[in-house]
Every structure is written in C-alpha cells, then in structure tokens.
What does this fold into?
Amino acid sequence: MTFIAKPKLHHPSLVKNKAGFTRRDYEGAVSTLCAGCGHDSISAAIIQACFELDILPHQVAKLSGIGCSSKAPTYFIGASHGFNTVHGRMPSVATGANLANRDLIYLGVSGDGDSASIGLGQFAHVMRRGVNMTYIVMNNGVYGLTKGQFSATADKGSISKKGVSNPDSSIDMVSMAILMGATFVGRSFSGDKHQLVPLIKAALMHKGAAFLDVISPCVAFNNHAGSTKSYEYVREHNEALNRLDFIEGREEITAHYEPGTATTVEQHDGSLLRLRKLGEDYDPSDKIAAMKRVQEGLASGEVVTGLLYVDPSPKDLHANLNTVDAPLNTLQTADLCPGTAALERINASLR
Amino acid sequence: MKPTDITNPDYFHKVVDCQWACPAHTPVPEYIRLIAHGRYSDAYMINWKSNVFPGILGRTCDRPCEPACRRSRVEDETLVNGKKEPVAICRLKRVAADYKDDDVFKRMPKAPAKNGKRVACVGGGPASLTVARDLAVLGYEIVIYDQDPKLGGFIRTQIPHFRLPESVIDQEVGFITGIGNIEFRHQRVDSLKTLAAEGYDAIFVGCGAPRGRELDVPGRKEAAANIHIGIDWLSSVSFGHTTKVGKRVIVLGGGNTAMDCCRTARRLGGQDVKVIVRSGFDEMKASPWEKEDAMGEDIPILNFLVPKEVKHDNGRIKGVLFEKVKAEYDAKGRRSLVPSGEPDEFHECDDVLVAIGQENAFPWIEKDAGIEFDRWGLPKLDEKTLQSTVKNVFFGGDAAFGPKNIIWAAAHGHEAATSIHKLLSGEKVEERPAPGVNIVSQKMGIHEWSYDNAPTVDHRFKVPHRPKQDALKDIMAEVELGFDPALAFKEAQRCLNCDVQTVFTGKLCIECDACVDICPMDCITFADNGDEKELRGHLNAPALNSLQDLYIGDDLKTGRVMVKDEDVCLHCGLCAERCPTGAWDMRKYYIEMTHAEHACRKQ
It folds into this structure.
C-alpha cells in the first residue's frame, strides 16, 4: 500500500470517453494491498475495460466476498454501487441484486479461497442459474490474509514459501465453470493486460454468466521457486490459445486480419468476438472440445489462457424465470396488485 | 534503444529541468526544500555558491529556470484553477536572501595566504565579482577596475532601486570583498597594454555592453535635449543626477531596459508614459512579468510602430511620428516588418527614452594588443573556457557574447575563474572538471521518504506588491514585498522535487506491473525494445516531448525493456512505494558544478 493518495495530476494527453469520463475517473481509493500484488493489476485492467466501454459508473454494482481479492473493488470505480458481503456468499447477494434490478452491470470479485473453498457451492449455483454477471476470481493459490497456507486452487505438488509440498488435488475453476453451465469462460494472467482487458470487456457485455479465472501472483506468499502461481512460472507456462478483440455492436471493424488467422463469434446481441489464432486451431464455441483442451493443459502443466468457452446465445436467469423487462424494484403497487375487480374475476373463475 | 547510462552525470541533471536550464546550474529543488524547512541560511549558501547574488537575482533574474520547470507541463488547468504555471523559483530565491541569518557571512570563506599571483578584472559587474570570489579564496590577489564609484556594474546603475534596493547590492558585493585579497580601484581602464604592463598574471574583461544603441531618425539631433539613451538615463537616475522627467514620455524599445525606463519615468513625474515597440507585443524581448508590471502601472504598450521622425519646433520636442508596420513571414519562417499601408501615427511627448538595444564597445583595447574580434565587434573566444586570442586574457558577462543577463555573467565568471586557475597552475585550460554528484536513496521506511512526495495542486502564489499609489510616489520604495514565510512554504511545496530521481534496477524487477498501474502520469511502460521513434508512439501514454529523454532499463527476465518518459514524471515516488522488490528507488542526485576551487588536480 502507499501512504499518499494517487496524485490527481495526470498525463496531459488523458482523454475522455463517450460517457465524458477519463480513465482516471474510474479509479477508486488507493490500494492497501501489498506492493506488487497481482490484484492491483486486475483492478487496473477493470478500470481500463470500463473506460473503454464508456460504462457509467453508477450503472455498475461490484460485489465481493472476503479476502484480499474481495478488498479489491474498493480500489476501482469509486462512483459505483457495491459492498463486501459474507465470506463465500457473494453469488447469493449478486443473484438477489440482479433479480431486483436487472438493469445494472454486475461485477462479482472473489478469490480462490472465497470461491473454491467456503463459497464453492454458491459459485456452482450462480453459474448454473445463468445470473447475468461477470464473475472474476483473482486466483493466487494461497491464503494471503492468513499468511500463506495453500488454497484449494494450489496445484498438487506445488511448494509453499516454507518449502512444504501440496498433497491435495487442486480445484480448477475454469473446468468447474464450464461444467456448471457458465456461458462465457476465460482464463488470463494479471501480468498480461493486453489479453486481460479485452476479456473483461467481452465478459462485462456478455448477457449471461461470464467467468474469468485470473492468475494473480501473491508477491508476499506465493512468488517463489516451486510455486505454480508465480510471475515467472505463469510467464513460462502460459499457453495462450487466442487473442481476443472485443468489438461492440455497430462499430466498424478496423483491425486487419490475414485470411485464416482469425475466428469470429457473433453473439446474440450483435456484438462480435474476434479471436486471433495463436498456433493451434481452437473453437471456443465447442463446449466438449473446450473441456478436453482445458484438461489436457492441466495434465501437461500448461496454464491455458484466452477465451476458452463461449455460448453465443446465452440465456440468463431472467429469461429462465420469464420475468418482465422492467427491473423488479421499479414495479409499483399498481403493477403488482391487479385490484379488487381482478380478484373478483379470479375468484369467480374458481367457483 | 540502448539502456540509459545513468552513470553519466548529465542524464539525471537534465531531468532536473530548472537546474539544467540555469546557466550557473543552481541546485534549485534542494534550496527550495530547505526554504520549506525554514533553513533559509542553508538555502542561501547553496545559491551563493552557484550564482553568487541570491538576493539580487531573487529580484531581477531573467529566470530561464521557470519556463523549463516541469510543473508548467504537468499541471491541470481545472485542478489548479488557472493556467499551467511553473514554481516561482526566482522569488523563492529572494525568500532565502530575505530571511537568512544576519551572521551568514561567517559561513563564507576567507582568503588564505597569497599565492603570489595577481589577476586584474576590468569592470566591477557580476562577472568580474564572480571571478574575484572564486579566485580570492584560492590565494589570488584580485584588482577590480571600474569607472563608477561603487562595485556592482549594471546591477547598480541600470536596475531601478524600486526593483532592487541598493542595500541588497551593498550586502552581496560586501560578501565578496569581505573574503579579502580583493582591491577595488575607482579608475577607468583606457588601455589594455598599460594594464598588461602592470604585470598581472591574467586579465579578466567583464566590462559589459556599455553603449546604448542610437536612434537614427530625422530630428534626433535637433531635439537632443529631450531624447535620452535609456541605459545612460537610468544610470543618471541611479546616481541621483536626474530627478525629473516630462509629463508625457515615450519609451522606444521592447526589452527589459525599456520596462525599467518607463516605470522609472512614472516615478519622476511622467503621467502619460507609453512604451512603443517595432515588433509585435508577443515577440518583445522583455520578460512577460516585467511587461505585466509595467502595464500594471498604467503604462500602455503600443506595437508594430517604427519611429520615423522626431517632430520639433526649433529644437523643442513635439512628438514622434511612427510608421505602422505588420509582420510577414517568408518560407523559412523568418520575420520581416513591412509597412502596413495605414497612415502614420503621431504621438506627442515631452521626453523620449531610447532603449532599443545595447552594443559592445572596446575602444580601450588596442588593435595591436593581440585580441582578435569577429565581424560583430565581439572578441573571438573559446565558448567553454572564455579564453581570448591572448592566452591570459579572458572575457565574461555581456562583454563576451553580447548582452545577456546577470545569471549568465555569474556562469561566465565561474568558467573564466576555472580557466584562469588552470592556466596559472600549469594545467590544460580546455580540460574542464566534471560536476560533483552525490547520490543518496531517500527511503526512510516502508512508506516513508525523506522528502514530501505528495504533489500539491495549488496554483502559483502571487508575490505581494506595495499598493500602486504608494509605489509610484517613491522611487526608492521597493514594489515587490516578497513572500512571507507562510506563503513561501506553500509555494515551495509546489516544487516536484525533480532531483529525487526514479532509479531502476532491472535485475530486481519481477515485471508485476505495480509501478505501471500506480503511476498517475502513465509514464512507465514495459515493452519490446525498438527505436526511439517507434517506442515513443507505443507507450501507455505517448511521449511527445522529444526534448525530454526516455529512460530505458534492461536486464528483465522477459527480455522486454522498461521505458519511462521523463517528461511528465511527478517524482511522487509511488512507483518505488509500490515496487515489491526495490527495483525502483527514489535517489536524490545533488549535482554541483565544480568551480575553480576544485578544478585542478594539483591543489
């Protein structure tokens, strides 16, 4: 952390987006996380993504659980809604909030402890229900707040800072998410904003349950030799399947692609996911192939990153429940209570 | 790009824009911090060492440091509620002089035993005084010649006392003569040969540019009684010979001398005083603040008017006729003033002050004395050593390269003194000493630095002025009252501490991006290396100011390079605070020019 607030002075070329805000306007309070924490880079990526999407800060609800990662929402989009909920219970709160007001952009921020241990059940259900939200796990494989015990996502055989080998199997959040029915699943690395920022943008605009597993090294407790979540290890083993260029609805495509080097996935809302191929042929809309590729990566020790799975026609919780288009919290008594005459009619029909 | 060689003292010196821009390379941020601490005497001594005349310069300097100040590039108009402004460096210097301890002279050096060598200085202005100071402390015997009864040169004769009280000049000249081994002779030098015959080991010529340029128009001779050469007139006012001027005064010229003339005229009875310049208002040579001060005293500045004729009635001046011109630029951007075709303008007046430039004049240097001159009448000199074509004769100040200013005179003085000392010590004059550099990390604790690293968003504070009606009544009353300690503290806090450098050690870096994310100016990028032009366009924020360097750090595990755009860095230290491995550190670079005292290997 730092003792002084980030100075308000900024680069002379800082520009405003269509919403009338600069990137700096999407910042939050100054971070109190340890120096070098990957979470701060993810916060910076979220700030960049929201700025580029011209999002109105007051249209965002950011919710989190408990842990280092769950502190992070304080450090971005200061002018938005949200709070730290109960440990592992962010998905329930997000589900409730989403039910009450479907018009907001929901951003759930959690960690590997919050989501893979105490909140694993909640995580599974929010995915299978298709709550329209972006669920980001800042995954460092370690309990940072309690000084460095293995978390449930720590790889089997990885070595702790004190030299102990992890005997337990790890939980792969990406596999879990695909299995549970998430309709947008990606993995990235806090140290690669070029990959991360477009993924966050696409996830925020995805109309369904979007999940991002972001490897985020813990500099204090999990950045040593033998760790599989260190900056060095992830850089060495990062196997990026694709580079995403998220293209919003009606915008003209200006990027140039050599034939056969890109795949386009058109989503139901008209937005385009343009994926630059990196090496192998990979079709992220093929769920079974995606699960296979992810498992292959786990078996070979690769950190498979990129947009791993996307359902271009997602259905979300509100569609499944067939709710009205208006946010439920805006419905008035007149909308909800049909009145005595209607009651009489119903009663009469039952007599 | 090649990794930056930070062992070259010039690299970080250049980052300290103010110090780099100062001809004497005064360590500005260091003395500003000392002022903020209330250590005025320490701040004064730093100045005294570098620029010799802190109290004088703190009122009169042309301040090349201020346009260079990084603050004027990074401020945000909306945040500071006004336009981007540099730190008031010059007026903070005055604070050090105003509030220094009375016995600060005790900290100044005293002349040691004489070394048997004698140096003559021609002219008693700032250049000669600087030479005298630098050499007297080494045991040289100095003799300064001047035609005026007191030392100071143009500082004393040209600058009105309402801008620079005489007591300040007396004190700072006294600090130099107080060293000892300095003799002042109130004597005009009429012959270089005669002077040389007195057996001096070296001669320094610091006689200024003493001749005011003449106005060559019809009627000039006939109306001579009411047409005065600006610098001579100011000098005459300064010594009390001139005490009055007509009610309607025209000042011709657009430099700082013109500003001094018009403001002086306002105090000697001039009621309708105006400045009339050939060029456009914006191209005037006068410093913007001096123009502001003149206009603040109800003196209009009329531009694009070229004097054509002085109208008179049998020698009794009526006024001046001006031709109206406009600026035209050729393909190369060179300006010429051409008649605009509008009718001539006539301005009535009782007196005309001519301040259209100064010229060098060396009538006392015999043609066969060995000193060669160029076609502009300036001595042929080595630009660095200031040595003339006679190896033991050196020039400095306005006498060297034409009219400049006091701070250049001091800078020349230091260089000439170094040259003289090297010559007389049998060393090569052209081998110049490197500056002294002291590098210290400013880290005091995990989040603590030994300097105030949080930049303020205060707008530049104005120096309080004496009320106009009082100021105009008394020619001796100083207009500027100077910052009081509280205002000085606030203004000092606007300094960004550019001498506290961001030093990067690549092999410690784990490329976590923490510095990139926290940097308020987006000036750090980790990128694949490329040529400079390519890199400048591909950074997190474009580096458009090519006058400012990119700091390139290598030794990174990914093979990329760290690129930092020095241009806009706030030196807030957040990169170093956020760095988990100490790859960034904030280190203070105290860079001090090496003067004569330490210039020779044989001491």
In short: The mean pLDDT of chain B is 95.
